[in-house]
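sanity check both lines:
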Amino acid sequence: MNSTADVFLENLRKNPACPHVVIAWGEEEYFKKAVGKAFREKAFASGEEPTEWFFQRDFELEALREAINSVPFFGGQNWVVLEEPRILADKEKTGSRKAGGKGKKKGLTSVEGLIQLLTDVPDYAFVYCICGKLDKRQIFYKTLSKKAPMVECSPLRSYQLQPWLRNQAAAYGARFTPGAMERIQEYAAAADPVPLLFLEQEIRKIALYAGARKLWQAEDVDQMFSQLPEISGFALGNAVEERNLDKALVLLQEERKKNGEGLTILILRLYASLRRLLQVKELLGKGAGPEAMAATLKLHPFAVKMALQHSRHFSAETLESGMIDLARLAAESRQGGRTWARLEEVLLALLSQR
């Protein structure tokens, strides 16, 4: 029973039955939290307070067995959360930790003992297991995928955001205009992957800012996002690509206020933006279309679309000159040379040239 997080959440909403074990794995914390919240709400009636047990990394299987199988007082139920069990990192063939205890066969590895517990959960218990990476070739995944939902929580790229954004807005009875969604994608394009937990918080602020107005515009997105130090680095790259000098200088000051340690990363981000625009410009000169550009540069069509739009603001010579200046600045800053003031001069020269 393997699925992505969005498919699992939809199936959980539609299906009257609730599983007793769910394993969520992958890198995206937002989806792990969303899956856990939906699973718990499905498992227990509104107002019901189960007996809660939490296990992290290192724990005794006997303690986990007690949590799962102990009959709660007054006929209640158990909610057991198992987070990043270290025993799954053990090599299965070594059996380096044994799963002893009452009613267990001696010689079982820790992984086998965990599998046995998770495949024999009583009706009054619900277990949510959260993992990072799982190897689909190993016995834990192979066995549990036949018995319980294995929910893959993978990160999203900026070009994959629109369905997620629609769902986020719908939760507030609202919707984004196409321009608003594109604006968020522009801000998030430099992030790989997109920080969904962060975006969720900012969308909540947009909902508060918009109030009773349920059609959210690009201006609403700008009002909330462009003022944030956390995203000003992404916004700065977009301002440079749009050749918006005033906005770029304001955002540069925001970056400078944060700390000087981010200068090198910022230079590399700006260099990569100019390089992408130059590549698109060169391919366009050779007669390549958007699909060919996407294939050649290994970019999503959305990223190519934005790069084509922004490349019109610069000549090839201007882009090349800006890349040289940024590369020289990166080298000189590592040797104790000028830093933020010099970057400001580079941007002034880049965005003032015709």
